[in-house]
Write a structure and sequence with these properties.
The protein is mainly beta. It is about 0% helix and about 30% strand. A hairpin with a 5-residue loop joins strand 3 and strand 4. It is globular.
């Protein structure tokens, strides 16, 4: 059974950049640690090089192929 639309996060994939998630979000990293954000919009790293992982710190702008 699918979730009601209101309970699903609003996600936008930025070309060459982070994943933007609107609303309260809990992101589980590769080690199983959970990171919670209550910001209106959270930028989640997709390049894997952020010093603030799982959150984006803009490092993708310095990487070839991630612009």
């Amino acid at each position: 059974m699918s979730e009601p639309a209101a309970s699903r996060p609003d996600i936008t994939f930025c070309p060459g950049g982070p994943m933007l998630v609107r609303g309260r979000v809990v992101i589980e990293d590769e080690d199983g640690e959970q990171h919670t954000s209550t910001r209106p919009v959270s930028a989640v790293c997709r390049c894997g090089k952020s010093a603030l992982a799982p959150w984006c710190d803009g490092t993708h702008k310095l990487l070839p192929g991630w612009r």
